[in-house]
Amino acid sequence: MRWFDSDFDYVHEFMEHWNSQRRKVRTASCIAGILLIIAGILTIVFPVGIFAVIQYVAAAALIILGIYRLVSYASVTWHFKDPMLIVTGILNILLGILLLFMPVVLTVQVITFLFAFLLIFSGTQKISFASRMKYFRIGHTGALTFSGVLDIILAVIFLFLPFTSALTLNYIISAYLILGGITLLIEAAGMHKLE
Known about the structure:
Blueprint: H1 10-45, H2 51-75, H3 83-101, H4 104-135, H5 142-160, H6 166-189
């Protein structure tokens, strides 16, 4: 563990690292957000006929989102690393793998609750990181806080939705993908150069 050094400018280190990586992260967030929204729309448009195909597309999107979270954790400076990014990244990857290999009956019953817990972890991580950035007087955290609150609200909705049919799972997956894509685009829009 590295100890706090009062003579070292941690905020400046974070700002330099952020400014050097901002465009790459912003582009990756925009691409991932658009792909998630497209996958969610396809899930709504073709709810029954191509459930298997949509299931594979949604699984791939979840795995990509999980990898994005792990890369995001690895790219942040040590003092701003949040272990919840690892948890949400691993949960996204596991959900994607489960979606690929589980039978539909089990998938419908298990995935709804896993989505809800994943969203709770993801939302609290975003809110926690935004408050940590505010503590260090780094602005433009409103989009991150908003997307965290949106994730938690969606988690509560998932916990109370009926999940007894594959059709319901389609709409749950589509809502998760579309809202996940929207929150990534909101985060990308809020990625400003730090002064």
